[in-house]
Design goal:
- It contains five helices and nine strands.
- The protein is α+β, with helices and mostly antiparallel strands and 194 residues long.
- The protein folds into two domains: 73 residues, Phosphorylase Kinase, domain 1; 110 residues, Transferase(Phosphotransferase) domain 1 (Transferase(Phosphotransferase), domain 1).
- Strand 2 and strand 3 form a beta hairpin.
- Helix 3 runs antiparallel to helix 5.
- Belongs to the protein kinase superfamily.
- This is Protein kinase domain-containing protein.
Length: 194
């Protein structure tokens, strides 16, 4: 069963040791022997980053398969926050909004303390478990900051969640994730896309 798709491949439902898992697979045309393609580089970068992250508010990395190239992740039964808000149109209470927001904030704090910018924080990249707990996912655009703490990567992310400094192509840092978090929080409260 197809759960979603991204720039380098798709996410499907699989099974591992009798439990459902999410398989993030590199497209075959992107997964050729040429490992220099941008999709392959993005896939490998996310794999390295996820393998190094262990936190209750970050999607759990379970393993990797070589053929076809895929990342094995925990499966979250409600899918993304976007699915909960805009497909299921679930009526979530303010208490649940605050709980989800707290989970995302704790995940962001963990990432930022490790000098990692997510750079694409949005409802599609927040996964929701059966207890409505939230986990940050999709680290394809994440970046580890160098000692200066400033990135000059240019336009990266999803426009409605981009901070003004990214849109203006100015140097940016951790506040861009905080800006995206504020837009996400507003979307949960208003139940409308930005």
């Amino acid at each position: 069963k197809r759960l979603g798709a991204g720039s380098f491949g798709e996410v499907t439902l699989g099974e591992w040791l009798g439990s459902p898992v999410a398989l993030k697979t590199l497209n075959e045309q992107n997964g050729s022997a040429d490992l220099s393609g941008s999709s392959t580089k993005e896939f490998l970068k996310e794999l390295r980053l996820l393998a190094d992250l262990s936190h209750s508010k970050i999607v759990r990395f379970l393993g990797v398969c070589a053929s076809p190239p895929c990342i094995v992740l925990d499966f979250y039964s409600h899918g993304s926050l976007d699915n909960v808000l805009h497909v299921q149109k679930a009526a979530i209470t303010y208490g649940q909004v605050l709980s989800i927001a707290q989970d995302v904030a704790l995940g962001m704090r963990f990432l930022h303390h490790r000098d990692i910018l997510h750079r694409d924080l949005k409802p599609q990249n927040i996964l929701i478990d059966k207890g409505l707990g939230a986990r940050i996912a999709d680290f394809g655009l994440a970046k580890t900051l160098v000692k200066t703490g400033v990135s000059e990567e240019g336009l990266t992310g999803t426009v409605p969640y981009m901070a003004p400094e990214i849109l203006a192509r100015q140097p940016y840092s951790f506040p861009v994730d905080v800006y995206a978090f504020a837009i996400l929080l507003n979307e949960m409260i208003a139940s409308e896309r930005p």
